[in-house]
Amino acid sequence: MKRNFKLNLKSNNFFKSFFIVIIIGFLVIGIIIGNLNKKETVKDAKFRILTSFYPLYIMIQNITDNAQNVEVSNMAEKFTGCIHDYTISTTDLKKFEKADIFIENGKNLEDFTEKIINIYPKVEIIESSENITNLIEDEDEINPHVWLSIENYITQIKTITEKLGSMNPENKDLYLKNSEDYIEKLEKLKSDYEFLNNIKDKKAICLNESLEYLLHDASIEVTSIETDHEQSVLSAKFLGNIIDKMKRENIKVIFIDKDDDTKTAKILENETGAKTYVLNSEMSGNGSTDDYINVMKENLEILKNIKY
Ligand SMILES: [Zn+2]
User: Where are any strands of DSSP class E within 8-156?
Assistant: First the structure.
């Protein structure tokens, strides 16, 4: 009897220890899961903004300056041409997984947006150009490079600020204040160069359609030829026609973008004695919040010093 009793006691202890180990195990697993969830909640508390390309990234840096729990990243960060010609990569597509909101230029500049809507239906999309009325149309197609008109850029800021405020009310007042400050600087820049409009008879050849809004704002009469940007090669006949036009109308100025090939411009220069000016369409830069303002100022300084 006694012996049996001892045995029972032993097996009881064994089961007790076994259950304790199991309970501790569950507790540990519970704590780990709890912590993981906690981390997840902290992650989700952030308002994640993804911008399409560089000019919008700089714009949003200004609007969201000092905002709490906001993360801004740029989708096409390592891509330096126009997003127009961009085929979305798997790496960039992945960035939409965590994004709450995607800010695009619109006007068909991002032709992958449809794909994003299908794969990530929860990502809100802001078309920054939706309220722009100052549009340039070439052969029934709207030129989407609207940000190179300061006036348009301001309209984009206003549209985005309103939408961000309604989606992220926590920072609404800050967004408004930041936008006002930024717009004030832009208005100043715009009015500083308003005099460019008074210079008469400014004619030029533009070899990159990105620059059209900038030139249009300075009242330059532009013959726009889409070359490098469209990756097309101009035929000898087409080039001959441009050269004739330049000679006939005494056009002495050619504009290209900083990332453009200079081949066509060189041919036109040699045939007509015109001079090429390199402008910056702000597709890439140093990432500072003032980069758009600095680049536009440099562009306007170049326009100021041209002899037509
Ligand atoms: Zn483009």
Answer: 47-51, 70-74, 101-104, 124-127, 137-138, 141-142
Q: Give dist(CA 81, CA 147) in Å, integer.
A: 15
Q: Is the pLDDT of residue 69 over 90?
A: yes
Q: Which residues have CB less than 5 Å away from ligand 1 (the ion)?
A: 82, 84
Kindly list the structural domains of the chain, giving each domain's residue range(s) and its CATH number in brackets, ordered by start.
Answer: 45-192 (3.40.50.1980), 196-304 (3.40.50.1980)
At residue 249, the pLDDT reads 96
Give me ligand 1 centre to Cα 210, in Å: 6
The candidate with the shortest Cα–Cα distance to 211, out of 148, 153, 283, is 148
Threshold 0.70, pTM exceeds: yes
Question: So what's the pLDDT on residue 2?
Answer: 44
Residue that the structure tokens 């127009």 belong to: 84
**pLDDT tens per residue, range 15-32:** 677 666 666 666 666 555
In the reported structure, the alpha carbon of residue 229 is separated from the centroid of ligand 1 by a whole-number distance in angstroms of: 7
